[in-house]
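Entry for fe (iii) ion complex. Fields follow.
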Amino acid sequence: MSTSHFPKPVPPEWQPPDLMREVVLTAVPEDDRVWVPLHPNVWFRPLLLNVNAGYWTSLLKVRAAGVVSCHRHPAPVHGYVIKGKWRYLEHDWVAKAGDYVFEPPGETHTLVVDEDCEEMITWFLVNGAMLYVDETGKQVGYTDVHERIALCRKHYIDVGLGADYVNQFIR
Ligand code: FE
């Protein structure tokens, strides 16, 4: 009988030759420069920027009273609240630490953090794009994974982390 109850790792040749590199990182960074400013009191921290499938996962950090301006999602979004709480102006529920949220494709909403919450952090997986709309519902802007990469790159140059810093998140 084996003295160890642990299984052996599979041989490296079991992995396909074109396998992409895994991503492993400390999700909430120690270095505040990793947070990319989006709006007043709103930052995002890239985790995975997938240019092949057209989605990105990131942490969103919002301090009261921050607002993510009104936008429409043509593709599904998944979220998991890590800290604090937030809500959409369009719904009567409040997402709190530990909650999972699914945003169905087609939904238009406005994310807010109220004064009674100092800071929220939520993990989001956003597919496709976010379409920013004005008060009449007309599209006035958009963001996708490529725009996010450009935004990160500019920010990381500005804060001294360098243009290549964003590359570790791109697959
Ligand atoms: Fe959204």
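NOTE: The mean pLDDT is 95.
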